[in-house]
Amino acid sequence: MLFNHPTKSPQKLSIHPTNATATTSATGPQHETILCVYCSSDRRGRQLRCKLVSSEEFSDLLLFAKYAGAAYCAPNQKIGDPVFCKGEICPGRNATILATFAGRITDIQGFLAEDPENKILTVSIRGSHTIQNFITDIIFRAEAVDREFCAGCRVHAGFLYAYKEIVARLPPILFSYRHTSPELWLGSGPPNKNGYLPGDVLECLGSANVKCNAGRRKNAASCNNSWGTSVIAHLHYLVPISYCGSWKSMLDMSLQNGTDDLNSTDPELAERLDMFAKLDLEYAEALEEDGSVPEDDTMQVLQTKPVPTGTPEFEAKLAALLQQFADGVPQNLRLPEDVFTNPPPVDVTAIPASCGLLSATELEITEQHDATALADAIARRRYTAVEVATAFCKRAIIAHQLTACLAEWFMNDAVAQARRLDEHLERHGTTVGPLHGVPVSIKGHILMAGTFYHGGSLSSLQKSETDSQLVAILRGLGAVFFCKTAQPQTLMHLESDSARGRVLNPYNVHLSAGGSSGGEAALVAMKGSVLGVGTDIGGSVRGPAAFCGIYGFKATSYLLPMRGFTPSPFAAELNVLCSLGPMCRSLRDMDLFMRVVLATKPHLQDPNLVPIPWSALSQTTGSSSPSHPSDAPSSGRGGA
Questions:
Q1: Could you tell me the pTM of the whole model?
Q2: How many CB atoms lie within 10 A of CB 493?
Q3: How far is CA 479 from CA 91, 133, 435, 473, in A?
Q4: Rounded to 5 degrees, what are φ and ψ at 543?
Q5: What domains appear along the chain, each with residue ranges and CATH number?
Q6: Which active-site residues does the annotation give?
Q7: Percentage of the chain surpassing pLDDT 90?
Q8: Could you tell me if 175 and 293 are in contact, meaning their C-beta atoms sit under 8 angstroms apart?
Q9: Rounded to the nearest 5°, which phi and psi values hold at 460?
Q10: Which residue from 18, 205, 480, 626 has the highest number of Cβ atoms inside 10 Å of its Cβ?
Q11: Are 135 and 234 a contacting pair, CB within 8 Å?
């Protein structure tokens, strides 16, 4: 439901949720639009959720919504085709499809298109949460997209979020073979939740998708619930601006054909799940026999010993996680097949320079500078932050294929961060801080917004919504985050072995990189990172640093900020306390890290910290890296 209302001050607007009326005490006429969306709360009433938006924002809403429905109105479009909506190019002129995508054996389809007239990139996905996310969150924001073919383009933030979102699914959908009829949806819980009960499942007939996927959920408490939108709100909102047809006819069809199975007994629903799982397995076997199943596109990662396997359910989850990682790595950054088919050299540290995937400038950036030198080179504009981020992102993913050192890799986000820093330097003539443009890698369990927290196991995997205190500090100092590194299962090991594989020592892949910060150590040794952050109780920074020939030390406990390092508070510590520490290529980089972090006075945010002055490490003038593990000290003098 939409209201146009002249108002000058959004703060003076009063919305009455029961009857959707609006009053204002504004003194000046500035045209604003009040967007109201009905949401179901329970069987006794409804809630009204409203947001005041500008006319420009509302215009963007209509534009994005038209594009959003295009994949439903005209599926199976090809690269180079114009974007159609029911026979007409929609909504601008010369909108052209640049890329298409589809589920591996599902009917999920979509495309990326460029609208040069409106200067936007649009993503339209059929068979996803795209529209639902847009309605429930009422997101009015467009984000810049880094594409050479569309400089300055933007994409709607809600669609971008929905595209990246991992949707929790229950077997048989978990096997990624096909959609079932009825479809089975999980209505609550994070994407990595395990242990669903039959009563948690929302069961929908394929012909009743509008009824089910629009958000009817028993006892939905509020609009913030992921299934909180009502059918009426969905259809009123979506259909009139997507040109897919009459919303009333779709609603009538849904009500006639749909069935409400929310009251199914647990045994009945469990029996249906088993039946559809068997059907999906039979279907997958038939596809494999006739060659319809595409080849596995999982990126190869070197392992010198077999990785232990788990139950079929566990392996299915792991395979999905590894495939998600692989899907984000372009083919032009994957090592050639012969690296894995022929026995690799014991020492793989030279392969990044010889594999041909890095340019001469990228080799110079990653091999001839420590963090201190890089920060200076970027500030002097010898390199841009984008050049540096790109070089280290590429080298990091090469290092991962040889040592299994990464848990996550997000090159696009890193380049976007770096571009904003370049724009700041160009606009203001100054850096944002002493680490402006310096790539920093982070150990896997440290919370960073938009990435996964995990303790080395799949059961602990969960998406982080906020930065830990240290990550926030480093971000404010100008650091560019581009990856999170591997660690052992449950963390407390001087080894880095998990279900993803064992982190290999770059100087001898038949030996361990150490732990628990083994991923960081291997990555820095491979020159895939110039500065990393590890954690240490009984040697988890010092051990891997010694094993891999890099610099690293455990700082004095309660000196550096560790608030937000895990989703829940640390377990009780008795005699040996946890601390974090830098992992890098030079002694002066350890001093740089300690100096700039402590200069932000983290003790003012965390009263557990002791404000001990940093007295600096000795011999901090050199910038060269150790050439071999035996050349590198693994610890330095502490902070007191």
A1: 0.56
A2: 20
A3: 40, 31, 5, 9
A4: -60, -55
A5: 66-175 (3.40.50.1820), 329-604 (3.90.1300.10)
A6: 443, 516, 540
A7: 36
A8: no
A9: -95, 5
A10: 480
A11: yes
